Amino acid sequence: MLAESGKLDRRELTRALLEDRGEMVVIAGLGAPAWDITAVGDHPLNLPLWGGMGAAAMIGLGLALAQPNRRVLVLTGDGEMLMGIGALATIAVKKPRNLSIVVQDNEHYGETGMQETATKHGVDLVAMAKGAGFPQTMFVTKPGEVPALKAAIHAGNGPFFAVAKIDATSKKLVLPPRDGAIIQARMREAILGPEAHHQL
Amino acid sequence: MDGSAPAPAALAWPDAIFAELQRWGVRQVAYVPDGGHARLIRAVHAEPTMRAIPLTTEEEGIAVLAGAALGGQRGVLLMQSSGVGNCVNMLSLVKSCGFPFLALVTMRGEWGEFNPWQVPMGSTTEAAFGLMGVGVRRADRAEEVAETVAAAARMVFEGGSAVAVLLGQRLIGAKVF
């Protein structure tokens, strides 16, 4: 699971987190996390975002509140999380126990020219989540910590927030379905059944 | 009617909105704090079947309502006209995925506004929604609020459209200190 740099390989980490996922819903922030969840196996309960930078955690909140008995995982990047950083406060106030946010932190804007993000310069997203009031957090750098990360995602003691430091190398582009209407409709059907198409 | 008191309709329009949201089964009410919506926000917080979700910025509301729709719940976003510009890029989520979207927007900067910095966004609110394909309906009198919200809600929750209802500053009353 380690890249040559000695940091976690983002795709192997994603594969480990989504293995045996059960009924868990996964929202992936735009860019590499969306390609990652698709590379390890496209799924009706995946919402890979092609845009809406900063939206991933808040989509997770709306879903977690609407479906309190279902695990909801937001898998996103450090740049995407930083753009919607106020969501940490919004989510901490509502305290959805079934929502987890995992930031794959490569300390760069990998999709747009590899400029450094604030996390490269010491900004601590875990500390920000703790400060907002997230009761459960983790900081992950080693493969040996991944089983505990996965257990925390499934524990339902959230809201849970984790940063996993990952290797910054870009991976092969694996594109999810492009049509947003199809992506959202297939997820609604997977959650709500066929009647999803008869109601809003 | 006591001539010295506000007309009953003027007091009641936030209650009329609340009744419509109840009638349409709205469960998630995302909002940015706002004087015009204060009475409605208090009612939502007091209603156990509704979730009041205070936001740090308006575009969070677009995303949380998308999540609600994915999970089978209806939602509405309450905000001021000054926040509409913040939503422009995030509305691409609504447009690209075809999410239902209902916003109730109290207007500033258009009727007796004392603060000139409210005017630029207040005068371009409808145009900003129009840029992103959100239909706009408008209510300027208390007696037309309920039917306007109902018409918008029907388009959103039965038709899957994206609609914003602008509540005119003349209806709300210009802010006084």
Architecture blueprint of SSEs:
The complex is a heterodimer of chains A (200) and B (177).
Chain A: H1 10-18, E1 25-28, H2 32-39, E2 46-48, H3 56-66, E3 72-77, H4 78-83, H5 87-94, E4 99-105, E5 108-109, E6 115-116, H6 125-132, E7 136-140, H7 146-155, E8 160-165, H8 180-192
Parallel strand pairs in A: 1-2, 1-3, 3-4, 4-8, 7-8
Antiparallel strand pairs in A: 5-6
Helix pairs in contact in A: 1-2
Chain B: H1 8-23, E1 26-31, H2 38-45, E2 51-54, H3 58-70, E3 74-80, H4 91-97, E4 101-106, H5 119-122, H6 125-131, E5 135-139, H7 145-157, E6 162-167, H8 169-172
Helix pairs in contact in B: 1-2, 1-7
Features:
heterodimer; A: 200 residues; alpha/beta; Rossmann fold; six-stranded parallel sheet; two-stranded antiparallel sheet; 8 helices; 8 strands; 36% helix; globular; B: 177 residues; 41% helix
Short summary:
Chain A: Pfam families: TPP_enzyme_C (PF02775). The complex is a heterodimer of chains A (200) and B (177). Chain A has 200 residues and is α/β, with parallel strands linked by helices.
Please describe what this structure looks like.
The complex is a heterodimer of chains A (200) and B (177). Chain A has helices at residues 10-18, 32-39, 56-66, 78-83, 87-94, 125-132, 146-155, 180-192; strands spanning 25-28, 46-48, 72-77, 99-105, 108-109, 115-116, 136-140, 160-165. By secondary structure, chain A is of the alpha/beta class. Chain A has a single domain, classed as 3-Layer(aba) Sandwich (Rossmann fold). In chain A, strands 2-1-3-4-8-7 form a 6-stranded parallel beta sheet, with helices on both faces. In chain A, strands 5-6 form a two-stranded antiparallel ribbon. The mean pLDDT of chain A is 97. Chain B is α/β, with parallel strands linked by helices. Chain B has one domain (8-172): Rossmann fold (3-Layer(aba) Sandwich), CATH 3.40.50.970. Helix content of chain B is 41%, strand content 19%. Chain B is built from 8 helices and 6 strands, in the order αβαβαβαβααβαβα. Chain B has helices spanning 8-23, 38-45, 58-70, 91-97, 119-122, 125-131, 145-157, 169-172; strands spanning 26-31, 51-54, 74-80, 101-106, 135-139, 162-167. A 6-stranded parallel beta sheet of chain B has the order 2-1-3-4-6-5, sandwiched between helices. The two termini of chain B are 27 Å apart. The relative contact order of chain B is 0.17. The model of chain B has no long low-confidence stretch (mean pLDDT 93). Chain A binds chain B through residues 25, 27, 47, 49-67, 70, 84, 86-87, 89-90, 93-94, 180-181, 183-185, 187-188, 191-192, 196, 199-200, and chain B through 27-28, 51, 53-57, 59-75, 89-90, 92-93, 96-100, 156-158, 160.
